Each structure stands twice: as C-alpha cells, then as structure tokens.
UniProtKB/TrEMBL annotation:
Pfam families: Calreticulin. Keywords: Calcium, Chaperone, Endoplasmic reticulum, Lectin, Metal-binding, Zinc. SUPFAM superfamilies: Concanavalin A-like lectins/glucanases, P-domain of calnexin/calreticulin. It is found in: Endoplasmic reticulum. One of its GO terms (cellular component) is endoplasmic reticulum membrane. This is Calreticulin. Belongs to the calreticulin family. It comes from Ciona savignyi.
Amino acid sequence: EPTIYFKDYFDEGDWTTRWINSESKSDFGKFELTAGKFFNDAEKDKGLQTSQDARFYAASASFESFSNKGKTLVVQFSVKHEQNIDCGGGYVKLFPATHVYTLVVKPDNTYEVLIDNTVAQSGSLEDDWDFLPAKEIKDPMDGEWEAPMIDNPEYKGEWEPKQIDNPDYSGKWVHPMIANPEYEADDELYAYSDFGVIGLDLWQVKSGTIFDNFLITDDVAHAKSECEEILSTTVKGE
C-alpha cells in the first residue's frame, strides 16, 4: 500500500482551512480557487491561481512530519499557465516542520544548542568562536632574512629571448586528475530527516498560473496512476 504523506486536489472542503495565504507582506499577491478559463470539469479542475500581475506569492500547507530515509520520495503536482507567461515561477518547495530551538550559555563559558529538547551542538565559547584574539601568534619580529636591494648601474632593461618553434610542443597542457583526499561518498544524499510543509513561494510578472493535484507519496506506481488519470481527463478535456 502506498503511503500518502500529502494530497490535495482541491475537490473537497474549504481550501483556506488547509492552506495559508501569507500575509507577512502587505503586497503579496492572492491565490484564488478556480478552474480557470478552460477546463474539463468546472469543479474537479479547480486549483490555486495567481490573480494579480507583478506580485510575489506565498502560500503553504502543513502535514504530519516524515523522513524519506530508506524510502522513495515522489512529489507531484500539475501546473497550467493560462497566460502568456514570460517571467514567473511554476514550482513548489518542501520545508521542515516547526521546531523549538534552545540556546543555553553557562557561567563556565560553555554553551548548548538544543532542538526539540535534544542537544544538537555544545562546546566552549572561547574554543568554538572568535570572541578573543588567538593565544599565540607568529612572531612579527622573526622571519626569513631578505637582502637589501640597490639599483644596478649596468641594467639595460628586461631581456627578451628570441622566439622559435618548440620541437617538443605536444599541445595545450591538460591538468592531470588525481583522487580528491577530501571526497567522501554519501549514500544518503537523497535523504531528508524532516518534511512537514509544502509551499508555493514565487514571483509572477503575468498572473494566471493554476496549481493543482498536489501529491507526496513513497510509491512511484501510485503517482504514475494518478498522473495518467489527470492526463486522460483534465488535460485531454481542456
């Protein structure tokens, strides 16, 4: 059975109870629920549409936090540009869930950083930060001796050798490659410990884009089946 972490096709209930239109800036554009100018089904094809030109947009929906470690992650959604778009976003972002961060600074000059009451970092203020100058520095009075320089009375200018073809020339030098000692393979580049929010955070010069059919799952076959249904009904009907 596929695990459905998040699904919203905007076909039931009040979407504003699930999504938040950001009001952190007064000039943010507003998303509106509509099927747009052309559609297959006026109700089923409704999605979030950008409604004002030359605006930033920000809206988000939360879901139960999860990690995709050891699992396949599939993020799927549909985008319909009804306008003649020339500059504007058509993407989504995934964010971590809300966490509580705690900083503890102690009189012995040590500190702790906790995330959700679990210590994530600790150490010494003096050792870990540049609050104080270094205890030791290189002696500025000591160093390599340099002989004093005087003008050469016989100097006639910089010598320039004559140029001839190099019989040993074998082409432009190519820097040889060696193994990078700092490289470490990471089998978990794909893994993220905490997904909890999906968001639309974008800019559009010309509004009119409709976002719909959001799906986050661990099953490629299920996402493919959902996609085929959208293509055979909504897209074909348009």
